[in-house]
Structures are given as C-alpha cells and as structure tokens.
Protein: Calcium-transporting ATPase
Organism: Botryobasidium botryosum
Amino acid sequence: MDDTEPDHGPHALTPITSSTHAPSHRSISSSVPRTDGAATVVEEGSSASRPALQHIDPTTDTTDPTPFAHIPLKLASLVDPKNLQALESLGGVTALIQGLGTNRTKGLSKRALGAQDSDEKEQEPSEKAYSGTLQDRQRVYGHNVLPTRASKSLWMFMWLAFKDRVLILLSVAAVVSLALGLYQDLGTPPTPTACPDGSMNCTEPSVDWVEGVAIVVAILIVVIVGSVNDWQKEKQFRKLNEKKEDRGVKVIRHGQETIINIKDVLVGDVCLLEPGEIIPCDGVFLNGHNVLCDESGATGESDAIKKFSYEECLEESRSLGKGEHGKKDCFIVSGSKVLEGVGQYVVIAVGTKSFNGRIMMALQGDTEDTPLQSKLNDLAELIAKLGSLAGLILFAALMIRFFVQLKTDPGRTANEKAMAFVQILIIAVTLIVVAVPEGLPLAVTLALAFATKRMTKQNLLVRVLGSCETMANANVICTDKTGTLTQNTMTVVAGSVGIHAKFVQNLSKNQERSHIGDGEGAEVKHKHRDDFAVDMEGLNDYMSEPLQRVFNESIAVNSTAFEDKEPDSDNIVFVGSKTESALLRFAKDLKWAGYRGVREEAETVQVIPFSSERKAMGVVVKLPNGKYRFYIKGASETLAKKCMRVVDVKRPSDGSVGHASGDEIPTSELTQLDRENVDRTIIFYANQMLRTIAVCYRDFETWSDDVPYDQLANNLTLIAICGIEDPLRPGVREAVAECQNAGVAVKMCTGDNVLTARSIATQCGIYTKGGIIMEGPTFRQLSTEDRREIVPRLQVLARSSPEDKQILVNTLKDLGEVVGVTGDGTNDGPALKSAHVGFSMGIAGTEVAKEASDIILMDDNFSSIVSAIMWGRCVNDAVRKFLQFQISVNITAVIVTFVTAVASATETSALTAVQLLWINIIMDTFAALALATDPATPALLKRKPDRKTAPLFSVDMWKMIIGQSTYQTIIILVFHFAGNAIFGYHGLGLFQMNKAEAELGTLVFNAFVFCQIFNSINCRRIDNHLNVFGGILNNYYFIVITLLEIGIQILIVFVGGSAFQVTSMNGRDWGISIALGFVSLPLGALIRLIPNGPCERLFITLRLMPDPNKLPVVNPVAEEEWNSAVQLVRDKLNTFSTIRGARLRGSSFVGKSRTARLQQAGIFPSSLMTMVPTLIGASVGAGGWAARPGSLSDPAGTDPSRSSAALFNGQIQIHPETDKTDPFYRRWGSHTE
C-alpha cells in the first residue's frame, strides 16, 4: 500500500460527526498529544482540551523509547490511517512484538509487570525490550486514561449566578440607593418627627442606608444559595461519570487469562476479542476465528470488517496487481465493536494516542437542557414577559405620578427627588425579580439531582439525565428474560444422556423432573417404557469412559468460558457465557478431566462462533487417529432436527452397569419414536422453565479448510440434552404487578423458545387474559397494518432477534406509546437507542449496550425498573408541586405590589423591596429545596402515566392556583387599605398613627409570609386527595426548611425593623397573621372538593388548558424530523434563556439528553383492533378444554394450553382464557388452529 492509494482506515472528522457518542464536535488547531501518558486535568474551554483530530505525524514525536524499539506515535500511525506497508517496514508482527518486549501467546511477563519474585520457568529472550520495567512502559507509551475536565469552582458558579442581568440591574439600583441613603443620613440635617408626647422635637432615625445594604445582602444570599446547589450537583455528576466509565478487559498475562481494569491496559498487552466488546485500545490482530468488527463509529464504514492475521494480509498484498486494493485487514481500531468471533490482538496505542482517545479529546459539546427543563422554557418565557410587562407598566405609572408631583409639590429637595426616583426604580425592578421564576430550572435540577443520587443507591446508574423525567410517562416496558426477570445463575439441573437416561440433580427431592412417565397417560408411558431416572451425582456409573470423554470434550473444547478469581471475594468462578459456565460446572462436578488440559490437548482446525441467527456454536478438532470431529451445542429444538443418530445408554439390568468395551461409542439411528421422545423431553423441560441445550458431534474422515456451517450441521449424533435452570428473581412477580397497576404494560422479548418464554411469562404475570405470544420470525413477516394491530396485545415475543425487538419498539412508538427497553447484548444497541428510555444490564451487559442505554441496572433486576418509574414520577410531581406553589405566590405578589404602589400617594408598595426579596427567596430557593426533595413512594405507582402531550398544569393545579391567589390577594388588599378602619386607628395623634401604620404594615407582611408557609404544605399534593401531611416526616428537608422560614420570619419581625421596615407586633397581630395563613389549609381542602368537570370546561374556554379532544392539524413527529435544528435554536434563544438562566447553563457534567425538547407523540390512525383493551374482562372462561391427541399437543399430560403444537410450529397463541367474543380473537383466532 503506497501513499497514493485511498485511505481505507479511520478518517478525520467527517465520519466522526455521525457517531452517536457525541452531539456536537468542533475542529480546532492543536499539536501532537502528550507523550508521557499521564492523566491530566484540562481546564474547560482551553485549547488543550480540544486537539484537532488529524492524521498522526510520527516525525514530530521526540519521545525516547529506550529500552523499547518503537516510538509511540509511530505505532499509533499504523492505525490512522491503516498502513500495512508501515507495519512491514517495522519488520512485521514478530519484530513488533519483540520491540515491545511481549510474547505472542503468553503476553507480558511478570517481570514486565513489575513483579520482583518472578518464577517463570522459560528464559525470556535477550532483546533489550524485555528488560523494560513497568515504569519504562508507562513512561514511553502512557496510561490508558484520558485527561479529565476540571469542574467549575464555587467562585465560577457564583459569577455565573451573578451574571443574571436582572440581578445586575437590581444591584446597580441597590448601590445607588445605598449611596443616596448614606448621603441622606450623613450629609443632610435630620428630619424632625412627632414624639410620644405630641411635640415635633424628635428626629427620624438615620436608617435610609439600611435598605440598600439589605438588598445587597439579599442578592448575595440568592447568589450563594443557588451557586452552592449547582456546585454540589456538579460534584455528584462527576462521581457518576467516573463510575460509568469503569469496566474490565480480558487479557493474557504471563500465560494466564485474566480480567483487569481498563485503565491498567498497557502497550504490549495481548487482549482478547469477544462478541459484544467495545475495543479499548488500538492493536494488531494476532489470531482468531471469524472476528467481525463494526468500525462505523470510527470510520463511517457501515459494513462489518473481518480481521485477518498480518501474515494473511501480507500475502494478499503481494499478490495484488497495480491499482488493486487489498480487502483483508489486520488492524484493530479502538472504539469499534466486536460483532462476532473470538481472537487476540497486541496493543500498540493507549490513552490519548489511541484513535478513540484522540476522538474523545476532540469532542466538545454544550450541555443541553433536559426534556422537562425544555418543556418549562415556554412557561418561564411567558411568565418572564408578563412580569417584565407588569414591572414596566408599574414603572411608567409611578413615573407619571412622579413628574406630576414635581409641579404639585415643589418643596421637595433635590435629594428627596432622587430618592423618590430610586425607590420607584427599585420597586419596579424588584417586581420583575419576583415575577421571573428563576426557581423553575433550580427545582428541576434539584429534583433530578436528588432523584439521581437516590436512584444510584437503588442500583440505578443514570447516564442520561432526561431519562428520569421520561420514565414518568412510560407506559410500555419491553424487557429481556435472562438475568432481568431471572437470576442469571445457570445450573444444569436435569437432562437426558442419549434418549432414555433422564438425570436429575437431587433426584429424591425433584422426582417431578425425571420425566419417566409419572403423571402421564398410560399410552405414553407404555411407548417410552425404556426411560429411567438417574441421580446426577451417579451419572458416571451409567456412561462408558469413551462417552464420558466425548461428552467432556464437547463441553470443554467448544467453549470460551474460563475460571478466574472474583475481584471482591477471590473465589474461583467461571467467567464467560452463563450457559457455558453451567456446562463447565456440570463437568467439574462430575469430576471429569479439567477443561484447561482438554483445551490444550485439542488441535482446533475450525471454530464456528455463536450467532443469534443459527443459535449454535461449534468447533472442529483433529483426533489422534488422524480423523476429525465436529463438536456442536446450541438450541435443542434446532439441533435435534439435524441429528440422525444418538448415543446408546441403556437401563442397567440385574443391578449391573452396562459399559461399552474399547474406545468405541455405541450409537443407534434415531427412529420416529425416538424423535417423539426427544420432542417430549424438550417440551417437558421447557414447560418447567429449563433452557434446553443439545450437545452433539459428527465425525469426518478428511477435512478441508473453512467448511460452511450448513454443510457441517447435519447428520449429527446426539450426545445429550441438558436442562439448565435460571430461576426467577425474588420479587419479579410483584414488580410486574406493580407496573400493571401503574398503567405500564410489560412485554417480554427473549431468544428462548416459545414454551420456555410462555412458562416464565405466566409465572411472572406477564402473560394474561387477552394477550398473545408470537415468535420473532413470524412477527417480522407481518405487514405494517397487521403489526400495529397485534402489538398492543402482544405480551411475549419468543425466539426474537435484536432486529425484532427494534421493530417492536418502533411500532410502539408509532402508536404513540412511551417505551422503555432493556438490553444486554451488542445487537440490542439499536433497540436501546430507538426507545425513549434504554436500560442496560450493569453485570451481564456488553459495553455496546451500556453506551447505547440511558440508565444502567447495576443489579440486572427488573424490580429496579419499577424504581425508575417511581422516581421518574417523583421528579415530575416535584416540579409540578413547586410550579403550583410559585405561580400562586407570583400572581399574588405582582397584583398586590402593582395595585398598592399605584394607589399610594408616595409611590410605595404594601410590600417593600427587601420584603419582596425575602419572599422571592422563600418561593424560589427554599421552596425548590423543600418541594423538590420529597422521596418517591409506592403510592406513585397507583395511577396511570400521563401522556407526553399532557399540559404542565392539571385541573387540580389550576383550581389551587386560582383559589389560593384569590384568597391571598383579597386579604392583603383588605388589610392594607381597610386596616385602619378595622382596628380603629382613625383619630390618633401623629406619633400613634405612625406607629399604628407600621404595625399594620408588619401585620400585612407577616400574614403574606405565613400564607406562603402554609400554602407550601398545601402544595405537597397536586391531586384531589385531602391528606397534605402524608409522608411529611420522611422529608427532613421540608421540615427543616419550613422551621427555618418560620424562625427567620420571627427574627425579621423582632430585630429586622430598619432593614425590612417592620416593627414588633403584639399577640393579637401575631394571632391574626398566623390564622390568616393557616386558612390556606382548610381552603385547599375545600378547593379539592370542587368537581373537576365544570372547572376543566371553564379552563379550556379560557385557554388555560388545551382541549384534549382537539386533533392536531400537523404531525408533530414529521415536523420535528426536518425542523429539529430550528427547535433547538428556538430553545436556546428564548427570552428566559437570554435574560435569566446563567446558572442553568453552568453545569458541564450533566448527562446529554438525546433531544433538546420533549418529542411530542406521533398520532397514527390505527385499526379498530388497537382500541380493544389489552386486558379483556371476560365473563366467559375458556372452559371445555380437552387435550388433543398427538405427542406435541399433549407432551406431558398436564399442559393446559391447546396451542403448544401451534407454538412449536411457529404460529401465534392467544391466551386460552380470552373471551371468544373478543373482536381480536375473531380476527386472529384462526391463526392458532
């Protein structure tokens, strides 16, 4: 390959922009990455954090590679672009491995890893590279870590919070007020005022400067409280990200397979390739079988790329003519995905020098709003506009009065006029501060932060913040079976060696699993009278040594699992496929030869890796006699049909055990009766929730390379059928019931056979009356119309491929459902991405699945999904509680301030600027903390989910907002304007009148604050339930903040006189103000008793709520498909985001939401069948059932379903208790016959 040929390797930025790993990219200038490999902290926004992704120039690398032979960037340049000629110039793979001081088969030695007491028997080569220490290797080639972005400091968050333009305007006004106040107090004579004896010899206290200081202090409190909250949230998400990025990698070190942390991978390590793995480092492929990699995330190449050894690639390259391009590839690109096959590669670049590392360094994206934050933008924008309009109108009205008074009151000094103007400006700006709801994003942030932190404690790692909110509206969960509904601890508990020997673990306690005729009909028992039961511990007594050896080899050689220590407990466990681990454990328990020795002795000539299409895996080995044997294991119902012979294991007679002599394994041809016995056995085990695995072999006289699977997998000899148990997880049935009660339908998608799937679905409560079961191949062949008709009733999709799951998810989304999906495999990635919320398995999940998911189930437990639904609803409810409270305060504060200021002859409001700022703190920061921290409770699962298009304000919320605002506005205005008449303050002297008016103003302020305190309790519920104190003792934040508000209010009244313009009150006034506030609670109960129907019609007429019966004129999904960029720009440029929200844009570690706005549901016209409820309340059961004759319809004599034969033959099944008058049954019932 010369330099003029096109580059077939990783490219620069063009294909990278299509990757799903980052929403935006920036191309910027930079230099070569660091060569010391140390992890660094990169300041946000610095050029060092955004290097340009360009092809590497090795000549710029000045690193001294001693004692190794290759400089770091020279090795990194082999992959970018892929350059076989450069690898050849290094001397090929052999010279590469020697230059890195490693071994092709054993990996790095103990000495190279820093072990002082190396006891390796083989002498290491004398090359200089083998003398290199661990420190030398890390110094030259670096660590497999990326520089971490430095989070913003607390001072930066304070600066961002203070950059709020309204706060800046208020600060300027406060400084001017302070300056004029100081001048008034210090530079002018004191103003005379009335004394208690009625004379005018007293002077007013010099406290004009206090208001300016109080406003400055209030601004500082707002800034500090908000910035501290954001800073703590930033730290929390940083910890979550660090936990998310941690994973294990399989490597070979000093000849042993082991799992190490991804950060510990070194250049020179020999790493293993397995299906589902995201490759952590760049490397050169050494050997393997049918390794296919998806490099689309790195190169943009959509086709899977098969990997070949360097020798094969070199041979092809030398055979090419001029202008021809080779197709074989020996380079492993970091960040790509292994689709299938197994193999090994040597690492040549890690960390920032690897291809994926340089991509990650080049990615720089801005934090997007979560869906709920975006949904609140329009509301916040409207409130900000109305509040600003009210402030401008108030300012204009007061300025008109000010200009009029310049003529009518010419006696005022210039200082008094300036003070009057500043007071007008302050009250108008304060009104805007109170009206603009900066607490809305804070409430969302706090609710999400608390929910995320608590979800982590419940084994839910949130990767995408917006998924918490989305789960609140989820109404369908598509779940896997293995490891999610079940425990994923596979064990061989029953099986059949040959046809007749039925072995069972603990036979004395599990007689029902022996399947030798107990409970069956006499006819069936008579036909299979040769079957006999064996305890698994004594199975060796019934098998000849050659059969034991073949059985053991078929398990050990045809497997990739291995033994290793658990990192936490140091126990020896099998690592790898759960099914393979169960079989290896089965062989180990029977004390057969160890799997390591069997594998080393076997001469493998071809490997058939497992794939979801063929549901089997195999290996061809050369026997000592020169012949060849093909071992294969896989889905029993598939392989049993390909078997022509079976090993003979007979019932012992007269107490003797029959063993075959010599090395021959007695076999016999499968008869029709034998095949029926096999089918009965498979169905019998499947109905007991056992996964059935067939173990087979086939002998060949001669061999040719790369024989296709279809030619190998026929004329097989059946060794055994193993029943592997994966028991249900504790609490799964209850969790499914909770989902169904919460209005969330659960659908199971599994690769297991339909009978196992039906059995588990029935046990879990997923398969219920009115539901259907279908196989994946049948499902994918349906037309679009039929699929939309069936999907609402589909409860189990068996033998499904990942593509079937994606089709199911997309169909549900087309029908307007909010879908959550679980997945653990590499091929589940598309379905996880397609779903609104993707759940991956933290234990069994591949890296591809985790990267594609939104939430990781750290315990792989379905019950955790229920917790996610509960917390999602908790987040949405928390924001709505806060919204209900704040809008009530906003309306009252704006009306009271506007009316009283305009009506006042001195342009003063009933609530001063400092008082309004204190109220603003109560309703923004304190209320956000109190109402957004209610913990999730099971009661949240007792209601149906909201639609995605549901308005933010429900009927109950609007009733409460209007009722409370009306009450508060009336009592404040009444006491402000009629207080003197109510308390008889007329006819008093000047001093007494001033004191009485001060007490009345304090009463009004105190009553308003206590109205908010009691209303915050009232707002803990947003439905029509009367108990507002439910669970209040579980929210310590609410209790502490409420007590803090009461304590501060008492202090303000007693000692804050000058700053807040209040005075001390007597017991009567305290009682009145508290009583007026307490009325909010019984008033709230009365409001909840008002019927919703008439109120909803009124609100729709007033356009406070959208009409739910009005059909859209535009398909929202179609609109967003072409206009998503415009929607995003509109989000970023709205008024609220421009004027407010500097803190909202401050976080750099909040997880990326997939879209900037909540996607509105697409509405598709569907057939009448989809409107039929999923669960039919049938009054007529499926009585009158009678077993059909035949081996499949009546496999064990106890199967209550009429449709076993239909399922086994690939048809659909409707639940047998479904009402026959159900329109769906009429339409599809014939398909089950």
About this structure: The two ends are 62 Å apart (CA to CA). The mean pLDDT is 76. Residues 1129 and 1156 are 10 Å apart (CA to CA). Residues 863-903 form the longest helix (41 residues).
